[in-house]
Amino acid sequence: VSFEAEMFLVAVGRMPYLENLGLENTKVKVSERGTVEVNEYCETSEPNVFAIGDVIATPWLAHLASKEGILVVEKITGKKVEPINMRLVPNCTYCDPEVASVGLTEAKAKEEGYDVKVGKFPFSASGKARILGETDGFVKIVSEKKYDEVLGVHIIGPHATELLAEACVAMTLETTADELGRTIHAHPTVSESVMEAAEGVHDLTIHM
Predict the structure, then answer these.
(1) For 118-129, how does the pLDDT look when each residue is reduced to its tens digit (9 = 90+)?
(2) What's the CATH fold of domain 90-201?
(3) 21: pLDDT strictly greater than 80
(4) Which of 142, 187, 194, 195 makes an SS bond possible with 152, Cβ 3.0 to 4.6 Å?
């Protein structure tokens, strides 16, 4: 997918605001980049002091900050908690076409030593995308060859940020590409493209 333009503006990013909190009177450590240092449970170096969201060095995403807050509350109230698996945090860009991704890219999976298989399905072959007149983009699924576990899902195209939720559930449950491909998806829907990409991992895509 390509688009020619005269100018490209990136207006993202933020800086933690930690002034007038009295952190200098605590054991809380602040990094050179101005973020509060925490462990995997969002605990600072000061007992019973936690930090979440944009003041720590995790991705600046509202949905992640929300889960960090829940983790901290459960930790404080004595519940058994598991650290957030950052590999399963969805990343979405609300542009046109939308871009959404979760898990490992093909290159990163190979770098980590996985023997990978890839399935890819273009929206130009999706009946619903053609009805909508939004056929740019694709769904790409990265799978581990030996056990067929889905390692990453990457989507560019119509409703990409909505479609990614299915991928997040699949990866949380350690679903295989075969299982995802065998799951019946309603027709005509854009979500069929996820199924088709999963089928493509095993060269079983039909509507191509």
Answers:
(1) 999 999 999 999
(2) Enolase-like; domain 1 (3.30.390)
(3) yes
(4) 142
E strand or H helix at 117, and its extent? strand 116-122
Alpha-carbon Rg for the chain, nearest whole angstrom, is: 20
Of the candidates 63, 159, 185, 187, the residue annotated as catalytic is 187
The pTM of this model reads 0.89
Q: Which residue ranges does the chain devote to CATH 3.50.50.60?
A: 12-84
Q: Give phi and psi for 142, each to the nearest 5.
A: -105, 125
Bridge partners of residue 142, in order along the sequence: 118, 152
CB-count burial class (<10 Å; 0-12, 13-18, 19+) for 200: buried
Does 170 score more than 90 pLDDT? yes
187 is catalytic: yes
**What pLDDT is stored for residue 1 in this prediction?**
60
